[in-house]
Every structure is written in C-alpha cells, then in structure tokens.
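Changelog-adjacent note: as of this version, every example in the card shows the full chain rather than a window. The one below runs 457 residues end to end.
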Amino acid sequence: MIRPNVINASVSPKGSLETLSQREVQQLGKVGSGGLHQLFRQCALAILNTGARVDNAKTILEAYADFEVQIHQQDRGVRLELINAPADAFVDGEMIASTREMLFSALRDIVYTESELGGPRIDLESSAGITDYVFHLLRNARTLRPGLEPKMVVCWGGHSISIEEYKCTKKVGHELGLRNLDICTGCGPGVMKGPMKGATIAHAKQRILEGRYLGITEPGIIAAEAPNPIVNELVIMPDIEKRLEAFVRVGHGIIIFPGGAGTAEEFLYLLGILMHPTNRDLPFPVILTGPRSAEAYLQQLHAFVGATLGAQAQQHYRIIIDDPTEVARGMAAGLKEVERFRRERNDAFHFNWLLHIEESFQRPFDPTHANMEALQLSLDMPPHELAANLRRAFSGIVAGNVKDKGIRLIEQHGPYRIHGDPRIMQPLDALLQAFVDQHRMKLPGGADYEPCYRVVS
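Full-length structure tokens:
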C-alpha cells in the first residue's frame, strides 16, 4: 500500500457525544490510555481511511504505524487529537462531516460496549441475555426507532465484485428507494455501498429527506473494510456473532448479492436460524439476486445449500436474476407480510423479538487452527446445527483473509485445515475454488490470493 499524505488535527464531536456527564467524559478518557486504546485507534484509522482500495487490516495498520489518536477531556465533553491521520479525510483542513460522525460513533460504541459489560444487568451466559445485550447496544446507538413500519432491507454481498455486479446493486437499491425502503449493509465497499448509492438517488426523487443508510460492522471487519461515506448511521458491534444478530433483529428482509466467504457466512447463519422449527411460520423475505453474468455463481451457491443443508433450506429464499424491479417488488410484498404478522402478535417493528436464535449461533467463535480443525461437519447432524458449523468455517476463512489477528495466525502456523464428511467437503472445496477463480476473496489488483485454508476429506 502506497502511503498518502497525513495531517494533524483536533476534532470535536457533533451528535450524540455533544452532551456528556462528567463520569462519561472520564470513562472516555480512560479509552485513550487504557486497554481499549488500540481497538479504538484501529477503528478510527479505518474510518479516516475511507475510500482506500485495500482490504487487509495488517497492511493498513503497518502503513500508518505512526498514526495516533488521543482523547482530551473538556468541560463540554471530549476532543480528539489526531496525529499523522490520512489527509484524504479532510477538505481544506476540515474533516469531512460523514467521517467525523462515524469517528465519534466508533468512540460511542466502543466505550458503551465496555461499560455495559461491567454492569450487573448484562448476562452473556444465556441466549436471552445475549439478545438483550444486542438490544441495548443498538438502542444506545439510536438505531431502534419505534413506530416505523417495517422497511429496513438488509443487503449482503461481497466487497470484491465486478463492475457489472456493482451496477446491479445500485439498480436494486434505486428500486428499493423508490418504494420508500431503507438500506442496511455491512457499511463497506462493493455490495455494501452500491444499494445505498442507488437508494440515495431514489430517495431524492421521492423527496424523502430521512432516508436511512445503516451500516453494522465489528472491529475486525471495519479495520479491513472502511465504511463507505454514504452511511449515515454507523454501529460497531463487539464481535461478528452480535453483528449478525443485529442484522436479523433490525432488518425486516434480506437481499443477498454475489460475494465470497463473508457472504456465505452470512447466508448460512441466516438459513440456520430460519430452519429452526421454532421459526417455521415466521415471515422473513430473503432474495438472492445478481446480473445475468452472476447466474452461474448464484446457482452454484444454491446447489451448495441443497447438497449440505437439503431442499428444506432452499425453500427459505427466492432467486431472481437480472430484474431489479422484481426484486424490489418481491421484497416490498414480503415486508407487508412481516407487518401483518407482527401486528397480529403485537411484536415490535424495530426489533425482531420473536425470531429464535440458538446459542450456537450467538457464542463468539475464535478461529484458531485447533478450533477450525475441530469443527464437526457431517450430514448426520441436524441441518441447523450443520449450518452453524459451516458458518464458523467461513468465519475463520474471512479472518484469515482480511483480519489482522487471522492473517498473523496464518503467517505463523500456515493454512487452516477444515475436516469433514466428503459429501460436504467436495461441494465446499468447489465453492471456495470458485470464489478464488472469480476474485471474490480479495480486491483485484493486489497480490495474488494465497488460500488461508486447506479442505481435507
């Protein structure tokens, strides 16, 4: 990575951190000197580096090794002092407004996460307790807005996609925006940006001034995939599992575009939840889509689901090829069903309390070599349990591809070894190889992709 110019600057918050108690200010100050400093520094650098075509957290951190952020207390709140920050985050010496908002959103979430963990009401030993924790984190970020009808559409897909696929995501986002629907993504580039970009134009056409472009991420991902500047609500969850739960609790329907290992992880997580018997009658519209050129990819992903989780899993989604209007119409119709269902059961529109999520989908998975090798992948398992372990396998591959910790583990110990039933390993290996061949594992133009895994039957 070629390092651009840097700048020193002092920045004050605008938004939720403008009015703080003295205790909160002191707590924020501790972040600047305590164990959370490195985490906040890493997230801050990613946000300031928005726009860079790099998807390797280790590369970014090494390129800006002398970047520093210091938190200073003031009578009215806090001030951030940035040293050797990426100059692209500034215009004529002033930080871009969206960057400043996201910078203080990161500070808000990291501090609140830590403060909540020390509180007596937090219970991370039960499924209900974990869901309650996710709720509190989202509520503190002002993401939950009671009274709004279901219209938050989550868009999943890869950060490394073709121009044709990116244009497709913009067209779908435009059609969604014309129907007054909001967009939630993982907040980065590629599929995470395209639907938001399309929706902004559509919202302007419809004179919608309060369009929501919600980005949900976690520290390991944001360091490698900086938020795109369209995001007007950024939420940083503590780990990937709580990030995934936030998506399905806040979102009312999900559209899945072409992607790589991260998209497969999200898809398997969703299918595993929807396949649980408790969720059998719960409406949750899911659509797989892409341009005509992505049809083979989508069919391969569909076949992988059939080979591993069975035909029942394939009933939980539709595939629509090269028809953004039909995607938006199908999603809008599905959201009407969601609204009807929740009204009948007096369930909240802003948080999907009725969705049952097993603890196996909520417990953080540490992708060490031992844990990856120990994953049970057998067709004899209940399908939703197999989905949980397949999700963990793809989560480990994402860590080895883009996360700083995962990359360093691969450098030290070599590729992960993934064992399992040959009837699962064969389609898994074929799917992963397709991701590699189609440049879905890494952004094009960089170093050749070196697999961080080895599939063993």
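Structural remarks: The first strand starts at residue 6 and ends at 11.
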